[in-house]
Specification:
This protein is mainly alpha-helical. The chain has one domain: Ferritin (Up-down Bundle). The chain contains 5 helices and no strands. The structure holds fe (ii) ion. One of its GO terms (biological process) is intracellular iron ion homeostasis. GO terms for molecular function: ferric iron binding; ferroxidase activity; heme binding.
Length: 157
């Protein structure tokens, strides 16, 4: 088995760490801005997402020190669109989640056939993040709408 390119792997892990930490702040921030009848379940869903992002950030940070590198103290880009509209909040979250998903895919490409444990971790996270994106996509559909928002955007439906 070939060795991992430590520098490249750490660079991607640090980008993921920053993006997950941004997720913690983003979901927490949005959880303050939900008003209306649907508030209670939506606030708790957003807070769960914040907790999950924190867990992911902790797992990624542990990986960075496990392979002998220094975890970033920075945080990924945060865009405050000043929106109170749940659909816009969800669309923005979906976009950020897709960025994170892309980073986990980059990680997988770097560790595939080089580190069983890191490969397993990357695959697990891709699975989790894809299921999460699918869930958000369903929340963005109207009842009875079978096509995904990606299909609608790319005109495939
Ligand atoms: Fe995550």
């Amino acid at each position: 088995m070939a060795e991992i390119d430590k520098e490249k792997v750490v660079a991607v892990l640090n980008q993921i760490l920053e993006s997950e930490l941004a997720g913690v702040v983003r979901y927490t921030h949005y959880s303050f801005l939900v008003f209306g009848f649907g508030r209670i379940p939506i606030v708790s869903w957003l807070r769960e997402q914040a907790d999950e992002s924190l867990l992911h950030a902790q797992q990624v940070g542990e990986w960075i020190t496990t392979i002998g590198a220094y975890p970033s103290l920075a945080i990924g880009p945060l865009l405050d669109s000043h929106t109170f509209d749940i659909a816009s909040i969800l669309r923005e979250s979906l976009q950020s989640e897709n960025v994170a998903l892309g980073l986990y895919r980059d990680l997988l490409a770097l560790v595939e056939d080089r580190s069983v444990a890191l490969e397993e971790f990357a695959r697990q996270m891709i699975h989790t993040e894809e299921m999460h994106a699918g869930e958000v996509d369903k929340m963005l559909r109207r009842p009875g709408e079978m096509t995904t928002s990606v299909e609608r955007q790319t005109g495939k439906a």
